[in-house]
């Protein structure tokens, strides 16, 4: 197999991680602070509308592709016996899985569901703690996504150098 074939999933992973990093960063730096400034009814209505938007094919491909392709990159590097490259891609993949995918499943999506069930005319008294929890979860995802994008970009730039590095094997001395 042509060694350049390994570059395809690595580039896809890097591009998807970068785009998703941009989405999360824009939300964290612009939308979330704006939502902190509005009253409870406006916040609820905005979140209910915003939470409908990610439920489309484009966002699904972006989100799940950014989760999948680092694992594919690790697997293909391992298959080509590039253990060091595979290990680094696996680290990126696992950090992304835990800090973005898992945080979304455990924190942000349950809060989305809670907010979708709110009546803007009769909000729960602790609506601000839900708002703050959602913003904190999104901040975790943003920072994690940024770290994964930087890691993936570094791996793509240094791919030839990393693949050429010798693999040290510990041997037992008698």
TrEMBL record:
<feature type="transmembrane region" description="Helical">
    <location>
        <begin position="86"/>
        <end position="109"/>
    </location>
</feature>
<keyword id="KW-0472">Membrane</keyword>
<keyword id="KW-0812">Transmembrane</keyword>
<dbReference type="Pfam" id="PF08592">
    <property type="entry name" value="Anthrone_oxy"/>
</dbReference>
<keyword id="KW-1133">Transmembrane helix</keyword>
<protein>
    <submittedName>
        <fullName>DUF1772 domain-containing protein</fullName>
    </submittedName>
</protein>
<feature type="transmembrane region" description="Helical">
    <location>
        <begin position="139"/>
        <end position="162"/>
    </location>
</feature>
<feature type="transmembrane region" description="Helical">
    <location>
        <begin position="58"/>
        <end position="79"/>
    </location>
</feature>
<dbReference type="InterPro" id="IPR013901">
    <property type="entry name" value="Anthrone_oxy"/>
</dbReference>
